[in-house]
Input
Amino acid sequence: MAVYTHVSAEEMGALLARFDVGTLLSAKGIAEGVENSNYLVEATGGRFILTLYEKRVDEADLPFFLALLDHLAEAGLPVPRALPARDGTQVQRVAGRPACLIEFLSGVSVSHPTPAQAHAAGAALGAMHTALRHFQLERPNALGPVDWRALAARCGADLDIIQPGLAARVAAELDWLAVHWPVGLPRAVIHADLFPDNVLMLDDRVTGVIDFYFACTEVRAWDLAVTHSAWAFSADGADYDPAIGEALVAGYESRFPLSAAEKAAFPALCRGAALRFLLTRAWDWLNTPADALVTRKDPLAFLRRLEFYAR
Ligand SMILES: Nc1ncnc2c1ncn2[C@@H]1O[C@H](COP(=O)(O)OP(=O)(O)O)[C@@H](O)[C@H]1O
Ligand SMILES: N[C@@H](CCOP(=O)(O)O)C(=O)O
Output
């Protein structure tokens, strides 16, 4: 459960008093998510999400994320905007952390997507890339290819605690990617974390795309590779489902065709995607505080995806 920072009823009430949303009815910590603290807040004026930004979100990046959400919402995409308080500010301070009160979107995230749902998710990603072609702001990717070696070094030999031989496997993959990572592909602002838990759906329809806190300027097709690695496998990474993978890419291409160069680079981009999530999960596996109300995610589920792409 991702609640790192406890917000008291008094603090919650004081926060809502800064907005035109009525008074507090209830607030509950949300079980899903691993990065930030999220509460589902019921007020007399509606239902909202309160997000307190934690470890990996730099407060200085919040204006970028909020502008991105406003841009996508204006383009008609189902993304949640941060509400402005009565004084016009979107970012508040709650329990010592930067925080936003965010529009609640309906829908559920699917655990076992059907091809139709994967097609819809791919199409939503393609529509997002279309809407972002003219988005002017930039944000470097703090978890991009140049950072993977440093992250692996920080995990160090402890990778072998997760699985014997993992440190050597990661080192070999870093060397492979150093040679094969594509150059010259188009770059743009991307979501960079479009896992099924970040897509809200009703039946086969995408009703919400959430969690933009890894959004950054990066190789655009890498976003599709990340999404492919997240959607097209069983949760443990052991089984690839080609129908899901193909539907996802077809949905994407229905809104944003890939170039020949992007298609040729796709296997390497997928290997990079698998390594990126293997490494962040490994770091979290080794470093999550014992008292945090969070379920760690299995790094080996992305080692298995990596081995699939490598084959
Ligand atoms: N705008 C929203 N509308 C509805 N539910 C949301 C919204 N934002 C977050 N949630 C819920 O909170 C959960 C965690 O949010 P998420 O942004 O993924 O957290 P984290 O950044 O910690 O990974 C989501 O899985 C979803 O259930
Ligand atoms: N999607 C990443 C971790 C980030 O978690 P999220 O809940 O913010 O999507 C992973 O699965 O490793």
